[in-house]
Amino acid sequence: MVDTVRIGDVSVARIEEMLTPGFDPAFLFPDFSPALLERFPILSSPNFLDPASGRLMSSMHSWLLKIGKDVILIDTGCGNHKHRAPAAFKRFHMLDLPFLDRLAEAGVAPEDVTYVINTHLHVDHVGWNTMLVDGQWVPTFPRARYIFGAKEFANWTTDGRSLRAQPEGGPVIVDSVMPVVDAGLVDFVEAGDRLLDVISFVAAPGHTDGQLNIRVESKGETGVFTADVLHQPMQIVCPTLNSRFCEDNERAPLTRRKLLDFAAESDAILFPQHFGAPHAGYARREGSGFAFEPVVWKN
Ligand SMILES: [Zn+2]
C-alpha cells in the first residue's frame, strides 16, 4: 500500500528515486545564514538537515496523480545510466535505481501512464522521460503524452536563456528530452492552459525562465506542484533565499512570494520536488511571513 493524500477527487502519491544528503546549505543558498536554523528549529530536523554531514536532505521523486482513468507523473527525477560529468551533477551520474519497481508498487506499469508533465527541463526533473534500451534512449512511458512548457523548451533548444545560463544542461536535453520529441509524444503548453478540467499551468519564472507550476483544483481543494520555486522548507520561512541554480535572482523570490501568498490564502498543499520527509506541506501565515506545516499522509 502506498501512502497518498487527496486533492478532492485526485489522489497523490510520491514515487521515490532517491533520498540522500545533498548540498551544504551555504553552497545551495549563497545567502544562507545559520541564524535561520536557530530561529526555526523545524529546519534542523533530521528530515531536512542530515546530522552526520550537515548537508540538506534532498529527495528526488515523481509525483503520481490518479484522476479517473488518467495516471499522471509530474517530473521524472534523474534517470538510470545517464552520464553526468559536471561536479554539481555527481549525485546523478550513472545511477542504477529501482524507480520503476517503486512505480509498480503503486500499481502502475510504464504503459499505464497517460501524461508525463515536466515542470522545467533541468537534469533532476526529466531523467526517467527516457531509458536505455539496446544502446538507445527510448521513451519510458510509450503511451503517455509528455507535456512541456513551450517557452521552457525553446530556451533549451534555440540558444535560449536557459542553455546560455547552464550549457552543461545540453546533454540532458539530448538524452532525456529530444528522444520523446522525436517520438512524437510531446504536447507544448503555455501558462494559463488547462488539462483534464482539474489542472492548470502557472508561470513560475526565476529558477528557469520558462518554469511552470502545476495547480490542481478539485472539489474546493487545491494543490500546487511547485517545481523548484522551493528547494527546501527554509525558503518558506525565508522566501528571499535563492538557490545557486536559479537563473534570475530578481524574479525567483517574486515568484516564490506569489506562490506562498496563494498557498496561504487557498489552504493549498505544496508539493515540491526536493523536500525531505514528509516531502509536502502547507505555508501558513505567521506575522508578515510564513511557517511550514508538514502534510500528513494516509495509507
Ligand atoms: Zn530540481
Q: What topology emerges from the helices and strands here?
A:
Elements: E1 5-7, E2 10-21, H1 25-28, H2 35-39, E3 57-67, E4 70-74, H3 99-105, E5 115-117, E6 130-133, E7 136-139, E8 145-149, H4 150-157, H5 161-165, H6 170-182, E9 186-189, E10 194-195, E11 199-203, E12 212-218, E13 221-225, H7 234-237, H8 251-266, E14 269-271, E15 281-286, E16 289-294
Parallel strand pairs: 4-5, 5-8, 8-9, 13-14
Antiparallel strand pairs: 1-2, 2-3, 3-4, 6-7, 10-11, 11-12, 12-13, 15-16
The structure holds zinc ion.
The site of zinc ion has 6 residues, from loops.
Descriptive account of the structure:
It is a single chain. This protein has 299 residues and is α/β, with parallel strands linked by helices. The chain has a single domain (5-294), classed as Ribonuclease Z/Hydroxyacylglutathione hydrolase-like (Metallo-beta-lactamase, Chain A, 4-Layer Sandwich). The protein contains eight helices and 16 strands. Strands 1-2-3-4-5-8-9 form a seven-stranded mixed β-sheet. 46% of the residues are buried. The mean pLDDT is 96. Bound molecules: zinc ion.
